[in-house]
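User: Sequence in, structure out. Go.
Assistant: Echoing your sequence, followed by the structure tokens.
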Amino acid sequence: MKLLAVIFTIILIAAGLLIKKGKLLLAVQIMWLWVLTALNNGGMDYIDNEMIYIDILGKDIFSGLNSWLSNIIAYYFHKCNLGFTAYNAFLCTVSILALYFVIKKYSEKPCCVFSLFFIYPMSECVIQKRFFPCVVALVIALVMLMNRRWIGFVLSVVVATGWHFSGIIFLLFGAILFVSKKFARVIMPILLLAEIYIIFMTPSFLSIFSILPKEKIENYLRFNISFFAGSVFAGFVGIFIFLVLKVLHSSAKDSFHTMANGIIRQDQASILYLANFFSLLILPLLFCDSIFIRYYRPVLIMDYIFLTNSMRGSFLKNNLRYYYILLFISFLIVFAVGLMIFDRYSWRMYYETIFENNILFNI
């Protein structure tokens, strides 16, 4: 049963990349994503997340901003005598539905987008329970930013912090509305050099984060991975951003605008360009811990929508853009497979978490 589940997942990914758009296929993809995430009942980080859920009863759920929405929902699930499995199923259901509506509205090829999501970061969404709804809320925040809706952007970030407090970092993306591409190209090298100097050359840089819980600082900001591993993560994210920026630049000066017809407008694409550009600031942090790649995921999901929208009309006439997108998908597959094989956790742990610890597959 578990092996068949793996094979079926691969078939769904391939079908979505080839068919790109189809109501039946899309429905099956959404249901299968729900099965893999909502029916998970064990594996990596499961016990830690379950303990957080259990400990809610002994906390003041209104004591702070950290995971306030998660705490409130968990509290009422406890009141209804529902366990962590039901709570997780609820979070995943809400997250998947919200993600579906965003993709459905802005993507011409939703099946293709979901296939890319299955490749990455679906596995991370199974493991990082509370960060899944946080990422979806941040995707909505990015959509609000692309539509220049300040209130919606701020509210979406507030909701994201309700699931995971680290989502508040996304407020920095609000500066995008006040920055031109030309200025971004000038200021980015300066910001990157300053960030690298602070992280690698300033011994007391951790004191900057004194407002954070001590255990969080210990977990994420003390170079928990090797320099080589950090280089690999930073390299892949850098490649993804570079390829997306090349496609965005190519479509901007092309007479054929891939953002036309109300899907993603050219002005929205400009904001997405800057969002990718500012995501370069994540690269130095990846040398501390690979966990920081989570802050790139909302941008990555919007990149999926943009790239798949570019695969139409005169797309085939632009061979360079074709190769950029093909390279992006190829590197994404290599990254996802490599993550499962060479990450701190073995591929076996990923397999057990996603396919063995599942209510449906163990009936």
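User: And one key feature?
Assistant: The chain is about 65% helix and 0% strand.
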